[in-house]
């Protein structure tokens, strides 16, 4: 009886700690609400850091290992600028690769059942018959928007876009 | 003597020493002059570090003690011109910043390692984390004697193995 009570108390404390991570809460709050007329699902929140919520923690939405949005025109985060039908090819440190196709707003996601990469990974995107290669590699963050955000500058190359025209995505 | 009594005695007599230790400050005129590894041969080491460790989601960020500027991530020049965005060539100013970042991590231990010509480099957190001998979010990135390790350790020893550094960067996934 005593042990059961202890277990329940421990579990409650663990859940409480998970629910009370102010840093994570602030980051999620900073994303704002859903766009008008768009519910949660594969086309929501293009250009946002997917794994912030899709991280597999208790009570969160389904876990993604890699996810993001590919846009056509650089620096423009908008559903209508999404590069739908782009093929995102990822290769990990062991040489294993996986390809995901973007949906209408440019979003793509990879679940743990589909692929669990060994970092670092390299990425190239095929869109409209043109292949653009990410110039650097991904060290460990599966959210494209963890690094690719506006405004572009010293700490961000800007959102992922296929329209750079120089043969490479920064 | 009971355990409770021992604990009480330890608290009574030990607490003042703890308070003194906690409240003491370094001498205001105290200076430590670091013995630093070679700056002139750091460039290939920097390029290896930037490539292996400096992406925006790892050490290419202002949020880490080992802050690396360069082509893979954070840029030093506060200029958003296209050729200074992440992904474009590392600049000399960034290599200088990276040098300062590396030698500033653990100056006393760095001095010992450099003075002893690179002996026991694992005294440095930089080496232990890179080798995965200490908890490291980025995991184990080099093994004793591989090109990355040789690049870094040879630089600490004062005889940079440039060829190893070149082989270690850029990243080439299989």
Please explain how this structure is put together.
The complex is a heterodimer of chains A (170) and B (174). Chain A is of the alpha+beta class and 170 residues long. Chain A contains 2 helices and 7 strands. Helix content of chain A is 16%, strand content 18%. The longest helix of chain A has 18 residues. Chain A is globular and about 65 Å long. The model of chain A has no long low-confidence stretch (mean pLDDT 88). Chain B has 174 residues and is mainly α. Chain B is elongated, with a radius of gyration of 21 Å. Chain B has 7 helices and no strands.
The radius of gyration of chain B is: 21 Å
Q: Globular, elongated, flat, extended or rod-shaped: what is the shape of chain A?
A: globular
Instruction: Give the CA-CA distance, first to last residue of chain A.
Output: 59 Å
Number of helices of chain B: 7
Tell me roughly what share of residues is in helical segments of chain A.
10-25%
- Portion in strands of chain B: under 5%
Amount of helix of chain B? 40-55%
**Low-pLDDT segments of chain B:** none
Beta-strand content bin of chain A: 15-25%
Find the count of extended strands of chain B (DSSP E, 2+ residues): 0
Could you spell the SSE succession of chain A in H and E letters?
HHEEEEEEE
